[in-house]
Design brief:
InterPro entries: AB_hydrolase_fold (IPR029058), Plant_Biomass_Hydrol_Est (IPR050955), PLipase/COase/thioEstase (IPR003140). This protein is of the alpha/beta class and 217 residues long. The chain has helices spanning 58-64, 89-102, 117-128, 169-181, 199-203, 206-214; strands spanning 2-11, 15-24, 35-41, 72-77, 105-115, 135-139, 155-161, 185-191. It is 28% helix and 29% strand.
């Protein structure tokens, strides 16, 4: 696994610079292969301008420890200070388009994973771009119940801690219930003895990545 720091400058209504890390899987040198793409959105405390702090955080931390060898390109952008992922929605979609254009990405296998603030960002991006993602994995978060119908054709596996005192578990269960009311495909894992920080438990689950590989848009 190699992790490379990169930057993307996006000009929409304002000039936004999104720094990101990108990791290529073993075997990426094979020019005949295309790979699934995972975009991982971090939580609030990782915002800023120091992209290096994300190199051993969340999904990349678990990969660095050798617990997982994932057959995906993994991209980890950094949200600017005093901003949120929904505010940087256009920048993230521009980043995805750049990665797809410059790397050997299977366009039918683009996935979103996010924790806490990043989980809210996952819900928001998928609601606004429901056809862009083969599956989403929100952790410790909730979504816009009034827009749940937009996700009726999106594969979802959500994770939450029952003892979360930052984002109550009801925020997640209410969103999942709303999606199911629109005949959506939503799967929910609740950790009965855990609180808000469930990243390691959820992201160390090899079954999650096997499930992702089964999802295509």
């Amino acid at each position: 696994m190699t992790i490379q720091p990169s930057k993307l400058c996006v000009e929409i209504t304002k000039k936004v610079q999104i720094d990101y890390l990108i990791s290529h899987p073993e075997g990426y040198a094979d020019l005949n292969c295309e790979w699934g793409l995972i975009i991982f959105l971090h939580g609030m405390d990782m915002r800023g301008e120091d992209i290096s702090q994300l190199s051993n955080y969340g999904l990349l931390e678990i990969m660095n420890e050798g617990e997982l060898s994932l057959p995906f390109i993994v991209v980890v952008p950094q949200c600017p200070y005093e901003s949120y992922w929904n505010m940087e929605r256009d920048a993230v979609t521009a980043l995805i388009d750049e990665v797809v254009a410059d790397h050997r990405v299977d366009r039918k296998r683009i996935y979103l994973i996010g924790y806490s603030m990043g989980g809210y960002g996952v819900w928001d991006l998928a609601i606004h771009h429901p056809k862009k993602f083969a599956a989403i994995v929100p952790l410790s978060s909730g979504g816009q119940i009034s827009k749940a119908e937009q996700l009726q054709n999106t594969s979802i596996w959500a994770f939450h801690g029952a003892k979360d005192n930052i984002v109550p578990v009801e925020h997640m269960t209410n969103m999942i219930n709303a999606i199911e009311q629109h005949q959506g495909r939503a799967r929910l894992t609740i950790y009965p003895d855990q609180g808000h920080d469930i990243m390691r438990a959820a992201l160390s689950n090899q079954e999650l990545y096997s499930w992702l590989l089964e999802q295509k848009s």
